Amino acid sequence: MAGATPKLIKELREKSGAGMLDCKKALNECDGDLEKAMQHLREAGLSKAAKKSGNLAAEGLVSILVNDENTKATMTELNSQTDFVAKNENFINLTKEITAHVQATGVSETSELMTTTINGTTFEEYLNGKIATIGENLVARKMVTISTDNGVVNGYVHMGKVGVILAATCDEAKKTEVTDLLKKVAMHAASMKPTVISYKDLDVDFIESENKAIIADIEKENEELVRLGKPLKNIPEFVSATQLTDEAIAAAEARMKEELIAEGKPEKIIPNILKGKIARWIEDNSQLDKTHALLSQTYVMDDSKTVEQAIAEVDATAQIVEYVRFELGDGIEKKEEDFAAEVAAQMGK
Question: pLDDT digits over 245-270, tens only?
Fold first, then answer.
């Protein structure tokens, strides 16, 4: 039987996900027998799996699985070494299989996942087999499952790079509407990157630190605006609604009232003017919330309202109780590669 031919190499590469040179070598050694070449790649790859595991895996896919009842959602991040492999159909199917397995087993850590059984073998052996045929290190790095007994869950993945899952309690009669809304809110969160659900969840030390930083940034901007002869930005006293106590709001209102009286405003219209000024003051003094708190952010689907207001319009009783966002490769330190040198090194193997 003939050895490697372009057609066989292409077929073996599509079937195995292995590199072109590896496929060519396997076919030549197996006299063009496709099945034997597949087994050869697997056996050869298994012996290389330990070496592959040292290679940096910072590409890959984020995958989400939501059950039919919209009561459980699982999100995983499976990493590969290259974006090329991440786009391979075998890899895409692998992420789906692993996500389903994570949901079925309920594991939440890689160490737990490795000891589970899948397709009659341990997950570690199963993954090593995939490393063998795909030809790159693969890492099931992150996984999470959220569920609810008195509400709904939903999620969204953007281009396999960013994933968000959410859980919300809601009125039984509004489950369908809230489920649809959660998909849109997940899309919003994928784009706007909130770090917490509510401003009440922000860390006190973080707020204090950002308070100083935001004020310093605005003061710096104002220096440039002075130079350009443009209107200056208001410098806030605070940056989060958590800091806006009744005393702080009352003090701000008293100052504004004194200013209006000094300007000669008629007493009877001052209360109406104050309402607008206080609303603007609260907005100016809660900038951090709009950056970090999901519910306080301006809703990307309708910038006339916040996310919290958008939810209330669908179901006034609905409350988001869980929010998880994955961004592919987040926290992995990537090293710069000389692509030409990498290709040359591969060709020399």
Answer: 999 999 999 999 999 999 999 999 99
Domain with CATH 1.10.8.10 in the chain: 6-48
Buried b (16+ CB within 10 A) or exposed e, 262-285: eeeeeeeebeeebeebeeebeebb
Residue 99: strand, helix, or coil: helix
What the block records as the tokens of 6 is: 């372009």
Please report, as a single letter, which amino acid is at residue 201: D
Burial class (CB within 10 angstroms; exposed 0-12, middle 13-18, buried 19+) of 296: buried
Residue 178, C-beta contacts closer than 8 angstroms, at least 6 positions apart: 151, 152, 168, 170, 171, 311, 314, 315, 318
6-48: CATH topology is Helicase, Ruva Protein; domain 3 (1.10.8)
Q: Both tokens of residue 162?
A: 């960013």
Tens-place pLDDT, residues 66-84: 999 999 999 999 999 988 9
Beta bridge partners of 99: none
* Token pair in block for residue 226: 């002075």
What would the two tokens of residue 116 be? 């589970």
Q: Taking the chain, what is the end-to-end CA distance rounded to the nearest angstrom?
A: 26
